[in-house]
Amino acid sequence: MLLLGLAVLAVAASAQQAAEAETATEERFPIVEPLGDGVWAALQPAARRFSDSNSVVVDLGGELLLVDTQADGEATDRLLDWIDATLDLPVRWLVNTHWHVDHVAGNERVVARHPGVTIVAHDTLEQDVPGRAADLLAEDADRLAAAIEDARAKLGRGEGLDGSALDAAGRERLAAQIAAAEERERALRETSLTAPSLLYTERLTLPAGDGAAPRVELLHFAAHTDGDTILWLPGPGILITGDVVDALPYGGHGHPRQWLATLDRLAELAPRVLAPGHGPVYREQIAEAGQDAQPEESEPGAGEQLERLRRLFADILAAVDEELSAGGSLESLRAGLLERPEMKALRALLSVDEAGERAFDDFVPATAERAWEEATAPEAESHAQGDPDADGR
Questions:
Q1: The model's pTM
Q2: Beta 228-233 vs 238-240: how paired, if at all?
Q3: Separation between Cα atoms, residue 111 and residue 113, nearest integer Å
Q4: Quick one: 272 and 343 in the same domain?
Q5: For the stretch 299-327, what's the b/e string if a residue is b when 16 or more beta carbons lie within 10 angstroms of its beta carbon?
Q6: Which of 346, 375, 371, 374 is nearest to 361 (CA)?
Q7: Are residues 191 and 278 in the same domain?
Q8: pLDDT of 179-227, one tens digit each?
């Protein structure tokens, strides 16, 4: 999901540094990776994997399906440039996997360049995009504006963001960070959110242009949000998950218990390729004679990543249940959560760099707090999960 910390100037500075790193390494969105015949993932660079979303492009036979758009409008434009230059086909369908801003903010840019496009999503997005997403966008802009004012005051006093004294080079860097944050605030306030126009409830199969194109099934789950869409291509065994499966998922808006059940359902599909909303592609490796199926230096396979996340949600829920059984409190849960042995092991497994460690330390407590809320107010928080009979048939 789009980090709520966008409204903090330090995150804007980090985004600027990440952009500089992309320029230095020539890595910038989209990093295009084939998933199968006529299917491509458009990935964020590792430095931005928690800041903006991946996309997927599917050739349906003379027309394209695009999955998700980006919070950064210029990133969505670059993806559309790649589509026009490489595929030269119209985008007929745009599927939003859920309502978060980093998956829907670029919708208007797709509509402007491909006016025949139909935006598809679960029916909850009819209200959530113009409602919750728009509210979150405005809140981020307001918090960012307040952070900018604070940073300007510190710059005027010759202080850094941490209160330390600045030399001339430090003043120049902070001024550049403020300018980058001001540009980000302007972009947030100018973003117009376009809601989906074709809604479904439990399951939808998109029509293909010819018999050779893959069948694409849209399946509803309530895990990361109330209205998650999973896309399943049963022929090539490709699963496109939005943020239900990420390198490290955020659960603060979701349903952790249903999420755990959803991961079990997705594992039953036995995907050969899994394209997440954030992070790298996960592939099942076919072992050649005399070779290991999964080289140590590669990403985990699709099934392994599903199992890792299953372990994560199971331990979060176990921690919540233990605290409730002991008559404890949310504060006590927060204090001990990251010290659990299994949680420490999962942090080492899922956090491959400092950005991953920061995300883990932010996302896991938020998910636990959400699970606590649902456990202690079940009637207020109950939401029926869709039952799409997700067996690939």
A1: 0.86
A2: antiparallel
A3: 6
A4: yes
A5: bbbbbebbebbbbbbebbbebbeebbeee
A6: 346
A7: no
A8: 999 998 998 899 999 999 999 999 999 976 666 778 999 999 999 999 9
